[in-house]
Amino acid sequence: RPSSPGVVTVGTLARASSVAARLAWQLATRRPDALYFTLAVQRPALYRDLALLSLVRAAGVRRIVHLHARPEPAVLPVLRRALHGATVILLSPAVGLATQPEMVGDGCVPA
Prior knowledge:
Blueprint: H1 10-30, E1 34-39, H2 45-58, E2 62-67, H3 76-83, E3 87-90, H4 93-99, E4 108-110
Parallel strand pairs: 1-2, 2-3, 3-4
Helix pairs in contact: 1-2
């Protein structure tokens, strides 16, 4: 039975761990030039995605991150640190106005 959005279960943790393991394997064996990632902006999915992006950063692979919606204000400090050095694509000016003052401005481009 599928879990409700925003609810962390043993099953969702197992799936996230499986995805992380497959990503780490692909990064180690294929060494892509860049990775494009559409980031979830609500917790706890955001934290899952930021953990995956940390693997990509640790592998030295260029990160291209697409933000489709305005992140929750509480996560902006964590998001700013995680996206440092990444190319960030902002879907709309509203997302940019909400995030750019709090995020590193370098590398943020409108879609």
